[in-house]
Amino acid sequence: MKDRADEAAYLAVAPTPGELASGAPLPLPPDRTQSILEATKQVAGLLKAGGHRFALAGSVAAYGHGVPARFQHDTDFAILREDEEAVTRELENAGIKVRKPPEDWLIKATCRGEEIDLIFELARHPVTVEMLQRAEVLPVDSVHMPVLAPTDLMASQLAAFSEHHCDFGSVLPIARVLREKIDWDLLRRENEGAPMPEAFLFLLERLNVIERREASA
């Protein structure tokens, strides 16, 4: 049902061939920011009340750190793999549907009609106790919750880059806003030899978002 609703929403604003040919401004997809935030707050509240270990991740975590955002997709929570059953039970007891997708690195939930990803691995890197301990408790649309630390958040974004996914434009605002809070030297070392992350770091240098490697050495 959710996929059909998304398809219908897209078709309602998708440009026609005539609109594409006219050169006129194209319609924007529906803004689901507040709906996604409400779902985020409800799930975070349940996890907090149940004493579960977690941290907000992804674009909503960036929003928690002050990065402007307009959400169109889902909310990501980082949780420990060993907490899967307890978290599933907590959400299901609150009437939130939880399911296991074919991927073995997350479980998915649906809250207020929005998708929630509860992730055990961030771009193939396991979520650890240490990572969750580094999370910062921040207000997200007035509700306080653990949010991935800036360096961990950026590390997860860099690790997700590949030949098939290299949307630098979506990560650039995060780097700009959080640049003084991120350990760039650590990220350079962790991503040495990885083409896409290195390309993004080089772009940040050329845009004067971060110091060039030679200057920071």
Outline:
This protein is α+β, with helices and mostly antiparallel strands and 217 residues long.
Walk me through the structure:
There is one protein chain. The strands form three sheets. The chain has a five-stranded mixed beta sheet. It has 217 residues and is an alpha+beta fold. The model is unreliable at 1-16 (pLDDT under 50). It contains eleven helices and nine strands. Strand 6 (121-122) and strand 7 (125-126) form a beta hairpin. It comes from Streptomyces kanasensis. This is Nucleotidyltransferase. It holds the Pfam family NTP_transf_5.
What's the helix and strand layout?
Layout: H1 2-13, H2 17-22, H3 33-49, E1 54-57, H4 58-64, E2 75-79, H5 84-93, E3 97-99, E4 106-111, E5 114-119, E6 121-122, E7 125-126, H6 129-134, E8 136-140, E9 143-147, H7 150-160, H8 168-178, H9 184-190, H10 195-206, H11 213-216
Pfam families: NTP_transf_5
InterPro entries: NT_sf, NTP_transf_5
Protein name: Nucleotidyltransferase
CATH topology of the largest domain: Beta Polymerase, domain 2
Number of helices: 11
In the CATH scheme, the class of the largest domain would be Alpha Beta
Average pLDDT taken over every residue: 87
Q: What number of structural domains do the residues give? A: 2
Assigned CATH architecture of the largest domain: 2-Layer Sandwich
Compressed to H and E, one letter per element, the order equals: HHHEHEHEEEEEHEEHHHHH
Strand order of the largest sheet: 1-2-5-4-3
Quote the beta fraction: 15-25%
Q: Pairing-aware structural class of the strands and helices? A: alpha+beta
Record field, number of beta strands: 9
Rounded radius of gyration (Å): 19 Å
Distance between the termini: 53 Å
Percent helix: 40-55%
Principal-axis shape equals globular
